[in-house]
Request: fold
Amino acid sequence: MPKNKNFHRDKPAINSSVGIDSEICFAREYRDFEAINLRYADDRMNKVFDSLTEKELQIAALVFVIATAFLGRGGVVITPLFFSFFIAGLASLALSLFFGLIHEKVRHEFWVRQSDKRRRSFNAFDDARRGEISLREAIARYNEIRPPQGLVISPKWPIITQTTLLVLGVLGIFLAVLFSLLSI
Reply:
């Protein structure tokens, strides 16, 4: 395997010394390659958005159930220590929700950009296949759209912050319940 980090084994090889028929054949192959990746990027974009909606509902339901279960039942001793930990736990859960939404939005935007790049690259090679532009022009467009670079990933700080706040929120609520039970 080559040492080039940008090597894609499924990508058709670019040969600059091909004839017109070969250029059209190559453009068709490359267009089809980009179409597969475009479908994948579009699918991922939709899955990330669906996941965002699902997590919003799950966390909102969790916060609602926890808040009503502990404050709505009788016999809960609301001490200042309980109240402090309970409010801190709910605040951490709310912030966890917020950073979870930020994380999902960042991932969604990443896949929107990937999908747009794939679509423009697909169009360039499709134009070459139809003979509207040469293969060299399509390759030039491709290189402008998708410059060589390393692996592009979304930032990890939102998910790390979300997870940390979620753990702190659950711990805060657990401690609030523990202090409430100990003071009965």
In short: Residues 99 and 160 are 9 Å apart (CA to CA).
